[in-house]
Design goal:
With 374 residues, this protein is an alpha/beta fold. The protein has helices at residues 3-8, 51-59, 73-83, 95-107, 122-130, 147-152, 176-184, 211-215, 244-253, 261-272, 274-297, 322-331, 355-370; strands at 38-39, 90-93, 113-117, 134-138, 158-164, 191-195, 220-225, 238-241, 301-303, 309-313, 334-335, 337-338, 347-351. It has two domains: 25-48 and 275-370, Aspartate Aminotransferase, domain 1, CATH 3.90.1150; 51-272, 3-Layer(aba) Sandwich (Aspartate Aminotransferase, domain 2), CATH 3.40.640.
Length: 374
């Protein structure tokens, strides 16, 4: 660095490459003042959290001066009991995002490659760049991850393959057979990270969240979250299941108290409320089909989804382009997700909401599309 460069910057400089990272920008949360909001931009649970989880959260109010259980022992055992897993192979964190970042921090050296599908979750790229690695985005086939293309992009420099299954923001998924084939083609020194944030929503006989793959391999990790179907996004709580060696490595670098007392308590209670969970899943299955059919009937292409959202393509026509429709919906208080950051400029993502919210979305879309200009 030259003397003149030092003089222009009077403070410390971040590590090389950090400034090139595009920060994660979440979905819209605000509309114009005075407009009632229908928030369908963040894939949050339509029914919210279980009443049992809310009660457990409030019950921890007088414990807020205490530090949490550092290794989330009670929660790990509750997860293990719920899914038939060894608690020693589970780690909890501040959402699955933290665990995805820790995996990259631990297993990617500067100059290493990380492979992901073209339209995979943005956190994979951010975490890779923060670790000094290079992200390799693999072309997809009809907005689905392409197993053969992923395998073709693995080189001696590859350290991690990230696969979101189901994928956000497309809503598409790989079958159990495809995931097995993907893992079979990955060298043993490469870590396969299966991000199954939306697993609970999937009701397909050919789908597996990743538990079987992890159980029989030394290089597979599955991450899960309480932010989606369990409705605890505001508490930031997630978990991962993996080989003991990987989980032990993550424990070395995680924050010592990275899962709060209320978050752990609410997550345990949410796991225990099976009836509420099934009600949320049934609600999503019904309204996912309904919204998909209604939006398709408006002449728009809907990508088949197994999550709690749909991805919709908009035409390149004045007043009907994705950005214009997003703005027109926001003017009506309906907030949806633009996905330009994912390389999907002509698409919008709609979260499945409550019955009246879904009807409001479809009605507003119809009115917007009937006009020559928004």
């Amino acid at each position: 660095m030259t003397q003149s460069s030092r003089e222009k910057n009077n403070g410390p400089l971040p590590r090389q490459g950090i400034g090139a990272i595009a920060p994660y920008i979440p979905g819209r949360t605000k509309a114009e003042p005075g407009i009632k909001i229908i928030k369908l931009s963040s894939n949050e649970a339509a029914l919210g959290p279980s009443p049992k989880a809310i009660a457990a959260y409030h019950a921890m109010g007088d414990q807020l001066y205490r530090y949490p259980d550092g290794d989330a022992g009670s929660l790990r055992h509750a997860i293990g009991k719920r899914f038939g897993l060894n608690p020693e192979r589970i780690i909890c964190g501040a959402g699955s995002d933290e665990l995805l970042t820790l995996l990259t921090q631990c297993y990617v050296n500067p100059g290493d490659d990380v492979v992901m599908s073209r339209h995979g979750f943005l956190v994979y790229e951010i975490a890779t760049q923060a670790a000094g690695g290079q992200i390799i985005k693999v072309p997809e086939s009809d907005l689905r991850a392409d197993v053969d293309a992923i395998l073709a992009h693995i080189t001696p420099k590859t350290r991690i393959v990230f696969i979101a299954n189901p994928n956000n923001p497309t809503g598409t998924y790989l079958t159990q057979a495809e995931m097995r084939r993907l893992h079979a083609g990955i060298p043993s020194h490469v870590l396969l990270v299966v991000d199954a944030a939306y697993a609970e929503f999937v009701r397909r006989n050919d789908y597996d969240a990743g538990i079987e793959l992890v159980s029989g391999a030394d290089n597979v990790v599955m991450t899960r979250t309480f932010s989606k179907v369990f409705g605890l996004a505001g508490l930031r709580i997630g978990w991962a299941f993996g080989p003991e060696s990987v989980i032990s490595t993550l424990h070395r670098v995680r924050g010592p108290f990275n899962a709060s007392i209320p978050a752990q308590a609410a997550a345990i209670a949410a796991l225990d409320d099976r009836e509420f969970l099934e009600r949320g899943i049934a609600h999503n299955l019904h309204w996912l089909d309904w919204v998909s059919a209604q939006v398709s009937a408006l002449g728009l292409k809907v990508v088949p989804s197994v999550g709690n959202f749909i991805l919709v393509e908009f035409p390149d026509r004045a007043g009907h382009r994705a950005g214009e429709v997003e703005a027109a919906l926001a003017a009506r208080g309906i907030l949806v997700r633009a996905v330009k950051a994912y390389g999907l400029d002509s698409y919008l993502r709609f979260t499945i909401g409550l019955e009246d919210e879904n009807h409001a979305l479809v009605t507003a879309l119809r009115l917007i599309l009937e006009k020559d200009h928004v």
